[in-house]
Amino acid sequence: MEGHRRIRIRSIPGLAAALALTAATCHWSSARAQGPGDVGSDPVERRVSPARPHGHRGGASRAGLARAALIGDSIWIGHSIQTQNPLDHTTFSYGPYHVGVGLNRPKAGGSAAENSGLWDWDHMAPGEADSLQGWWPMRRVYSITGGLTLADTDRPWWAVDIGNQGNYVLNSNNGRTRGVLSYWHVDGGSVATQVRIPGTNPLPMTWAPLDGNGSAWCGLRAHGDMTYVDPVTGNPYNATVMEFNGENGGGAGSGVGTSKSFPGYPSQMDQMLYRDVEMTSPSASLNLTFLYQTAMSTSATSTASTRTGWFQFDPTVVGPVAVAGPNAGIANYVPNTAIGQPADSFMVYLGVPVDIDDLYLADGSHHVPGPTPHGVYDLKRRWFSEVLRLDMPIVEVLHVSGNVNTSFTLTARTCRLSTPRRAGQRTSTCGWCSGARPTATSTTSPGAPPGSSTRAARAR
After folding, report:
1. Structural domain count, the chain
2. The whole model's pTM is what?
3. Residue 197's Cα: distance from chain center in Å?
């Protein structure tokens, strides 16, 4: 599903406000480490047949590709552990991941040349620490029905927030990432001067900030648009972070390219923006006001074999929340089968911030430092249950979808807890599109060109 959301938070004199924002979407992401022409899903080495002298004819010229010719007839390209000799091209490699040439004859005790020209993830070059040797393992959407019609509660893997792959980071010491921490970011929309990669022609932004020079927007700009860059990861807030998410194109012979029609937001995502406030007494009250505008798809599917729900707090359990307290028994998985069609949504919550070293997930598991430095697995990339405490009250104060352009005000909300409060906005979308398409709207949307259409068949 696609769409865009923006919010501007106004400060309240004399009172700090806590505000959390979340964006969530549904289906269709996948990626590959291989390039066009690869067969299967495993890395395949490349071979190049060297130039032959004029007059060389017959089957021998084809035998090189079959690897049945003389030694040196083929050059294999892959990972190299050879020491480079500037006078010997068969030892060449390039870059930090040592992509180079070799004989591709892996064996224990083999020479450096024999164990080069392929990726086996066993042999490392001197000083090399990346066990993936530069590759990116990517999760693909499993969306095969096998001819069965199952309730979506019996195939919960369809509801994984695959649209969050734009936040993906390797769980290794080097922390490689092609993504951004969140799709939420301050954006100037049409007011900001667009910065482009030379040779690209990204679609322009068509919305203006709700006030001032920027609004918090949950969305991604078009490919080649480098106007805004994540200050932590160094990657741009544009379609590039989703290039491994989804495989389908615009259709054979359609000439419309891929379905990733950014600017917009990807399907099947769950993105959050939040802020904390210190409440000074048990009787303290909270005032909260902000402008917001949404342009979200309301499309959904009721096809029994493919309709899918979504996870409310985290993807640890299909069933009720198993954490003692006010949220015990609440459905952690919101099914499509039983209660209808979840739709792309923008939501605002009030709650208590989690203790990063002492928290519970929806399945009741207790997380403290140990295998990871903190109970929260990744402080910069969190599930909803890693933002607000499940063992304390969580109040949803706003929930909208479709096209809305208005303001929100919450006055004198008594919190009854002498603890920090966290306010958050959350945007959720659902699946059955492989990329982002902006929602059709006649108003200025936060990132979508008015009049463009959505291709998603299900939303939440």
Report:
1. 2
2. 0.76
3. 22
